[in-house]
Amino acid sequence: MGWFSSKKSVVGLDIGSSAVKAVELKGSRGNYELVSIGHVQLLSDTIVDGHIIDLNHVSDVINRIFQEQNIKTNLVGTSVSGHSVIVKKINLPTMSPEELGEQIHWEAEQYIPFALDEVNLSYEILGNDASGNGMDVLLVACKKDKIAQYTQVINQAGKQLNFVDVDSFAIQTCYEVNYKPQPTTTVALLDIGASVMNINVVRGSQSIFTRDISVGGNQYTDLLQKELNLTFDEAENLKKGMPTESGVKPDDAQPLIQSVSEILALEVQKTLDFFRATSSMSDSSKVDRMLVSGGSSKVPGLTSYLAERFGVPVEKFDSFRTIKYNTKNFDEGYVRELSPNMAVAIGLALRSGD
After folding, report:
1. In the CATH scheme, what is the code of domain 181-317?
2. Which residues have C-beta within 8 Å of that of residue 347, sequence separation ≥ 6?
């Protein structure tokens, strides 16, 4: 999504509902190197349903990351997802960019369930449609109050917001740079965060279907806490396959973890069914593989369960697949461990080289 162009180095700042992640890169197309990486957990209930409840805590965490990682750049790019964000691919008669600029607000009114004066609107012409008589346009809207919150915490931390992207498109940027997709390959990019799962079906380097769903890793934690009488931290550790101090073993939690994985898979299934039903190109409605990012991609057995359920190869997303880093400055185990969590932040940082 080329919403802006900047030659300056921009820090990719992913403000998730459970953690803030920051990445700074240097280099240009096809040759990137990691400069800084930071990942700090937020206190629980800091961000609820996509709304930042504790602005001071979030800006303090942003500040802390910049200080600890010695990040000198003040420019940041961030991204949004969830209920406040609408992404729609619409079909319009072929027209010039000037005509589209004049007409887009009228068109948008039909597709956006919010009043237009409540949203920031952006659009991009994707190209001619299959019939050749019209063109496909990607329409993106985000509620202004959400952008205002993100702007406020970034400004409060003494940083300057350079652009706002959408989580699914940031991940797509990260995917294109790291996986160099073939034009005919269709991949489902699943980003499973704490409270939102983003699904972006990408053919080659074009997004053909995207959906945000309000389910995520918190569901594992909540169920484990409730059913096994655990603290939040114990449930989090158990979710990652570690035993708890009170003696609950990962095996004891497996049936509960499986039940939540089934809920997530059902949402993926619904999304893919809807995608197939609305896809005009029959050959492209087959998903060739799935890549899973986000903290919950590490839930034991999730990728193998999804592979079995959907009959396609499923693997954890490797955000550093082609991005170099100096092992003297960065611990290899730490970078590998964080790799699936950093897809959004890396996608944002990659945009500064556009």
Report:
1. 3.30.420.40
2. 12, 79, 165, 169, 170, 171, 172, 173, 174, 175
